[in-house]
Automatic annotation (TrEMBL):
InterPro entries: PCI_dom, PSD13_N, PSMD13, WH_DNA-bd_sf. This is PCI domain-containing protein. Belongs to the proteasome subunit S11 family. GO terms for biological process: ubiquitin-dependent protein catabolic process. It comes from Amanita thiersii Skay4041. One of its GO terms (molecular function) is structural molecule activity. One of its GO terms (cellular component) is cytosol. The keyword Membrane does not apply.
Amino acid sequence: MAVDPARPPKLVLDEFINTAFAATPPELHPFFESFQTLYTRKLWHQLTQKLFEFFAHPASQPYRVDVFERFVRDFEGKINQLRLVEMGVKVSKEIDNPQTHLNFLTSLLSRIDVEKSKDAHVLLLATISRAKLLYGDLEGTRADMEKAWSVLDTLDEVDSGVNAAYYGLAADYYKAKAEYAPYYRNSLLYLACVDPEKDMSSEERLLRAHDLGISAFLGDTIYNFGELLMHPILDALDGTPHEWIKKLLFTFNEGSIGKFEALAPLFPQEPILQENYAFLRQKICLMALIESVFKRSADNRTMSFQMIGEETRLPIDEVEHLVMKALSLKLIRGSIDQVEQSAQITWVQPRVLSREQIGGLGGRLKEWIERLNKVEQRIAPEVLGSG
């Protein structure tokens, strides 16, 4: 019989407790004794904590849905709504039937006041959206994602678990759609909300690192890998057959075409990289151009096409197209002089730097300071003499 979401079932406490004692193993009985005491004394916070302990106990698995529906629903309006939803999310995992699973979650959603409990509302919407994704309903997933974001975007402070639920869902949605750049962004945001060592298994860390690498290569707007390269998630690739993906990430960030060509024979291990070889080749050339400009001082950024061709290993007749591509992607700003066959670059996209690039920047700063000192030494006698 369907449960009316607006009217919780009437709880007869003694009857519920006696039934629980008869149906559950002895190791769970202390929980029900505590439930009875805390409920009677209306100690809702302590009761919530005890319920979390119960739902975390392996022996509670067959009884979680029943305890939630028969017991928790009676007082769900009296407890913290985010904690209520967290319980509901955990309990829902025990429901195998897809429609029953969704009905359980949507019923709970209808009982959450979005204005009073926005974070709880977002967490539940994200969970419903993930269920729809698992069941192949991409349109339903996107609709619920957008509803969740419209609320999440208005919140100043959000529980990390709520953010993790949303960004983890968004990453998985864009992975299913093979949209690499949004997957990359949302996956990094997800990792910022969790502790990979504690919250992810080694298999999950490896898969996440692998997928982030592939999305970095194939994302048509991703030309700075620094944030990913500094993230410990990449350590999951060490000592695995995918370790070369980590090397390739560093190769792209350095704009090293020689290293790219040395690693290219491994691309068939990842057929999608092999299929997109032409795109990757252009991307490494763009990265080489960016790195070449970045290494130069601000007063030395007029580069001949021949110089760019040497840096990018491109024929000179392909250089202008490459520079135009970099300008259109807003990786650089500047102008092209077709008569002089040169490019004057006034700005290069800000970057998250690797340790090696920071070292190079430090070296240039040192040179700049030395030049300032020489200028100061040269003009100081003149200034003092005129005084």
